[in-house]
Amino acid sequence: MAIINYNPNLTLCGGTPPAPAPAPGAAAPVAATPSVELHVCMGLNACKGHDRNGTNNCAGTGYCATAEQHNCQTLNNCRGQGGCGLYGDAEQQMVPGANECAWQGSCAVPIQAERYSTLGDNVKKSVWLLARKLFEERMKKAKRVVGPAPFKCGPPQNWLISVLGSYDSCGNSGDKRCSFGFNNPEDHAEVLCKGKKE
Amino acid sequence: MSQNLFFSKDSEVTPANLGEAIQQAIEIEIATIPVYLYTYYSINRVPDQDTISGSLVQELVKKGVPVKEASEKALKLSAEIMVYANKAGALIMSVAIEEMLHMALSSNVKQALAGMPELVGKSPSVWPACLPGHEPEFPINRDKFSLDQLMTFLKIESPDPLPDPKLLAAPLPYKTIGLFYLMIIECIQNNELSYNTHSPQLLPNNGYYAQNNIDTVYYDKDHKPHFTNAPDSGDLLYVRDRDSAIHALHCIIEQGEGFQGQGFTPDGGVDCGIVLPADYDDFDKKELSHFEKFAQIYCHYKTLEDKFNGLGIGKIDISKYFVVNVPLNPSTAHYPDHIRPVSDFLNGVYTYLFVMVENCYRQAGNTQYEIFMFGVHKSMIFILNSVCGDIMKLTYKHGEQVYYAAPTFEDYPFGLLSSPKSQLIDLYTAAVAAYPAISYLGQRVQDLPDVPLQNHGEF
């Protein structure tokens, strides 16, 4: 453990902090690779090059999440990395991609277009559209121009499966995109896309 | 059957035995949890519709029904099974999570009026079990989904005394859970009691309780989601005075039995007629009481079975389409070697949940929050639920029958020489050696908070 010796010029708060002790045997400092902002889905990137492929041009146009993919509540690594929508209380479900801390996100990442909220003011409505709304509000405060998302209502589940190999969001009640032979699954996605309730 | 009776002589709740009575209420709630969960996990909520439809088409065609007509009938009926299996699962889960809420509300009342709630080691240890203190006793099994099991659920939640002695295990005076809570309420109402507002409780607005989640949702024939709990039907409550204590207990009664809704019919049957306002538990009339939820599943099953039996292809047990063949009242000790370590691990997680919740009544603020959010939620959704699904992929033979292993929900006896978490890690290690498919749970177990066992004698 590095020991910082007493320094009469150093106060506990403020002042110039001591330089961190070099790690044992460390070579000269090397510039770190710039990290990307971690966000939870398509169309929610704040910066150029901050999607999973690193190829997007501007804010809001990225193809996929940079946060670690996971399939349900409590599995997000940190602040802003939870998907929300299928578990959690009404308050938690209102902040997809904007949770306060690790493990407080209440659903899978990325957020498929078919996902709807199960509690709160957004109940039965699209989670991705809510995430995008929160993102656009944040960008407005930051005075950033936001481009269109590749899919205007978020990535369809089938597209995610084709890109990621597999995709699963939480719950035992079955696939969000499904038909028992009496409905067209596309219609449900369209309803959600219009901002209406499922 | 075993029964813990707290009242040795009379059935009156007094300030002297109030603490014991509330503890008994907590244990009534705990006793229902393994029963409802066991039956819940026996349901395949998303069976293979093609298989159901295909077998129906074959049977119908064999009986001379033209293929087109057979296919149309099979599609319709298979869709009904899809809806029913999912609906039955959603409704049972919606009740199970409210039983957990009731356990917490009763625990809040106990914390305010009589000290620490005791939760660890309170699951029934002998099966068939019975509700602690319930008169008359009636057997409660961990059993797969069936009409008989639904009848047991209805007895548990009945708002009225059971009218037909044939339904009873013994012809003794009957009390409902609601009446039991009313006895506690009466004691609280009629006595000047002191309320402890300093000890931690599980409070609302912390994200601890959510009325609905994706598991309380089912889809109708057109795949539109339906929610089985209403957001205004109940929540955690801070118990700090007489009114809040009574409010908490009334919430439990109404969620279970509705606003004095009707129970069994005079002949001991289930009323499958129209739903009355009293059958709901919320002011907006969007959520049925537990009793009425089970009555709905019961009646829907009968209707569906009649439809299948009207096809002219013989008597059909529709449960074969969506109910997994799990054993009656299994115990870990009786499972074979390849299942036992997995079952021990599952029971370790189940018991550790109670250890953590109990600890939440000793910890306030952020410590409590972290235990609940990172420990209880993670264990429930991402460890227990996962391993319940995993264990049911294992089978074993007993006699000529092949059974799927099922979660036994037994209290695991954590020792005092090391922390429960370290023992849980050991249980995981043994389980993963027997069943490598659950290795993905390792990090989740490691992530759990390290919470000690408590000695109840110190309070």
Description:
The complex is a heterodimer of chains A (198) and B (459). Chain A has one domain (37-173, 183-198). Chain A is built from three helices and no strands. Chain A has helices spanning 127-141, 157-164, 185-193. The model of chain A is unreliable at 1-24 (pLDDT under 50). Chain B is mostly helical and 459 residues long. Chain B folds into two domains: 18-321, Ferritin, CATH 1.20.1260.10; 332-458. Chain B has a two-stranded antiparallel sheet. In chain B, strand 1 (217-219) and strand 2 form a beta hairpin. The A-B interface holds A 72-75, 86-92, 103-104, 116, 118-119, 123-124, 170-175, 178-183, 185, 188, 198 and B 45-46, 49, 75, 78-79, 82-83, 86, 89-90, 93, 205, 207-219, 221-225, 227, 231, 373-374, 377-378, 381-382, 385.
What is the C-alpha radius of gyration of chain B, as a whole number of Å?
Answer: 23 Å
Give the helix tally of chain B: 11
Oligomer: heterodimer
> Poorly predicted ranges of chain B (pLDDT <50, ≥5 residues)?
1-5, 164-174
What is the number of helical segments of chain A per DSSP (H or I, 4+ residues)? 3
Residue windows where pLDDT falls under 50 for at least 5 positions of chain A: 1-24
Helix content of chain A: 10-25%
The greatest inter-chain interface is formed by:
A-B, 33 and 40 residues
